[in-house]
Design goal:
It is built from two helices and four strands. It is an alpha+beta fold and about 140 residues long. It has a single domain, classed as Alpha-Beta Plaits (2-Layer Sandwich), CATH 3.30.70. Strands 2-3-1-4 form a four-stranded antiparallel beta sheet, with helices on one face. The chain is elongated, with a radius of gyration of 18 Å. The two termini are about 10 Å apart. About 15% of the residues have low confidence.
Length: about 140
């Protein structure tokens, strides 16, 4: 039994739910979270792929905290010294699954959430010692069904 924790973009939630439903994943927990990775909540403009990247909702990561969000097509971008690290809104999903279901779930998460841009997210897989269904006390894999 494994716990899969995935951090994904907000705009990918419905698509991810639909894709997981298609492979019969039933138990999923979604949480609103904020965070930052190696880019410290900022998007380097020189690394954008040809097709462009999905926009961020909320504070624009290239603007200072006290600036008003404007269009993603900025002409006068702040210099490196003007940029402040920030936390971007994301979604965290948690799935506890049988060992045999982990690879298909991860495959769907990657296929659904990969844009090729910074901020696509992370997936963590952790071992689970046990699961207990509160309603009737079932334990182990049978508590997941």
């Amino acid at each position: 039994m494994k716990k899969i924790i995935a951090i994904i973009r907000n705009e990918k939630v419905e698509e991810t739910k639909s894709a997981l439903r298609k492979i019969d994943v039933k138990g999923i927990t979604f949480l609103h979270v904020t965070g930052r990775g190696l880019q410290k909540g900022m998007i380097p403009s020189r690394r954008l792929p040809a097709g462009g990247c999905p926009p961020y909702i909320g504070r624009h990561p290239l603007l200072r905290q006290d600036d008003v969000p404007v269009s993603a097509h900025l002409t006068n971008r702040p210099t490196e010294n003007e940029r402040k690290p920030g936390f971007l809104p994301k979604r965290m999903l948690i799935i506890v699954a049988n060992d045999s279901d982990v690879k298909p779930i991860i495959g769907v998460l990657i296929a659904t959430n990969r844009t090729g841009c910074h901020g696509d997210g992370k997936i963590f897989v952790c071992p689970m010692i046990s699961a207990i269904r509160v309603r009737n006390g079932e334990q182990g894999d049978s508590a997941l069904v």
